[in-house]
Amino acid sequence: MKPRHKRLVFIVVGLAGIGIAAALILNAFRSNLVFFFSPSQVVAQEAPLDRSFRLGGLVKEGSLERLEDGVTVRFLVTDNAQTIPVIYTGILPDLFREGQGVVTQGMLGEDGVFRADEVLAKHDETYMPPEVAEALEKAKAAGAGQVEEGGEKP
Amino acid sequence: MSWSEFFAMGGYGVYVWGSYGVAALLMVLEVLWVKRRRRTILRRLGRINQMGAVKVEHEAET
Amino acid sequence: MSTAGINWFKYSSPATFYPLAGRMIPWFAALAVVSAVAGLYLGFFVAPPDYQQGDAYRIMFIHVPAAWMSMFIYVVMAGYAALGLIFNTRLSAMMASALAPTGAMFTFLALWTGALWGKPMWGTWWVWDARLTSELILLFLYIGYMSLEAAIDDPRRASRASGLLAIVGVVNVPIIYYSVQWWNTLHQGASISFDKAPTMAATMLAALLVMTFACWMYAIAIVLMRVRNIILERERHSEWVMGVLEEEK
To answer: Which of C37, C52, C55 to mutate to test the interface with B (most CBs of B within 10 A)?
Structure first.
């Protein structure tokens, strides 16, 4: 075997070894790399109760309410299966909207209310002009109306 | 749209121009660094070359 | 001259590549400037504001190309390092070391612009989610590669050791790319990917692609400039370099 081929084999074997090792480590760490828990996971008691963790999901439409002090907000975080109430005092990020993604850090109280000390907005990968978004919204509303009228589902 | 409106970027001016400004700065700096390095190398090699040439001439004389 | 007759190994010789690179640099530099101007025009004057993020999303036109370049340059660098290790070609090792600083620069830019985008939109400069952390590891890999190379005096041994590090580090690139799919992260998924249509308005996409092209051209131009420096340094004892010096005068 020429030295050139030997080196090639050495590198290929080395790379394969590193790849397998990395895959195994990643797999082992998979559960530890969870950035946030969904409301369903919290209800299933997968999230730690004794320490702070992140709760992620969508802000439920129409659930945002401001308390009398003006800086404390209450809203519901949902993954469309389970819902967790969140209470937070502080400034909300610009992208915080009802119906949009959110990741909050805090502790779950015994009363089932999540007390957040940090609220981050999570946006999706869709970018479009406001007019298009409006048109889409209208089309969706019209489409939903039609289905109701016709009484048939696609 | 006025220019001041343009530079305000809907209130996000600091973030937008901070991004593009640093990007432009780094690229300009990188070019300058590489060019300066080239000048240094050429100068140094020029000196070595001259010394070599002197040596060769000297050897030719003897 | 038939195309099949081109001796590719001829171009892998530093003596042939040096003048060739010199002739190509102005073209790539000019393309970089022209496409950057076009891309910025599209990005700031043609592309509309985003329905959610307003004008802040315009950071994307530099953030996304920088992030793409940071990963792509790493793969190319590791490829050259592997070629250098397998075939012992001098030019491959030089290309690998010429790519590293530019790759590191784009990685830093991706992180920097990401922080400036994250603060107003997400509400934080930085989070330790899988995407951001793996991109930070990429920056450390570039820095490690450059330090390792600088730490060893003998250029051949230096490029062998650092080349090995570059090849090992390649595993990080797919981790960065797929991190948003494999784990739940604060960073959103890809708007442009191999397996689905882009989730972005056409003018925004056009601006993004033109800016990406500009970054490509910039990277090629600056790397060719740097590799010419490296060639001069490492080949300074050979006769052709002396010939070049005569011409440069």
So the answer is: C55
* Residue C75 touches chain A, beta carbons under 8 Å: no
Q: How far is the C-alpha of C117 from the C-alpha of C133, rounded, in Å?
A: 16
H, E, C per residue of C129-167:
CHHHHHHHHHHHHHHHHHHHHHHCCCHHHHHHHHHHHHH
A79-103 burial: b if 16+ Cβ within 10 Å, else e: beeebbbbbbeeebbbbbbeeebbb
Is it the case that residue C208 has pLDDT exceeding 90?
Answer: yes
Q: How far is CA A125 from the centre of its chain?
A: 13
Give chain A's mean pLDDT: 79
Across the interface, whether the CB atoms of B26 and C105 are under 8 A apart is answered yes
Domain A36-144 homologous superfamily, CATH: Nucleic acid-binding proteins (2.40.50.140)
> Residue length, chain B?
62
Q: Hey, are the CB atoms on C102 and B48 less than 8 Å from each other?
A: no
Q: How far is B1 from chain C (nearest CA, A)?
A: 10
> At residue A33, what is the residue type?
L
Q: What is the pLDDT of residues C22-57, one digit of tens each?
A: 999 999 999 999 999 999 999 999 999 888 888 999
**pTM (two decimals):** 0.85
- CB within 8 A of C216, min separation 6: which ones? C69
Which of C44, C116, C245 minimises the CB distance to B15?
Answer: C116
- Mind listing the pLDDT tens digit of every residue in chain B (62 residues)? 688 888 889 889 999 999 999 999 999 999 999 999 999 998 888 887 777 666 555 655 55
Chain C residues within 8 A of B15 when measuring between CB atoms: 56, 59, 116-117, 119-120
CA nearest neighbour of C74 among C205, C201, C177, C195: C177
Measured CA angle at A132 (ends A127, A133), to 5 deg: 70
Domain ranges of chain A: 1-33, 36-144
- pLDDT value at residue C2: 44
Which residues on C lie below 8 Å from A35 (Cβ)?
A: 127, 129-130, 183-186
Chain C residues touching A28 at Cβ < 8 A = none
Using DSSP's 3-state secondary structure scheme, residue A65 falls into: strand
DSSP H/E element including A111: none
Query: Given an 8 Å threshold on Cβ–Cβ distance, is C105 in contact with B49?
Result: no
Q: Is A129 at the interface with chain C, CB within 8 A?
A: yes
Query: How much of chain C, in percent, has pLDDT values that exceed 70?
Result: 94
List of chain B residues whose C-beta atoms are within 8 Å of the C-beta of residue C63: 19
Mean pLDDT on A85-99: 89
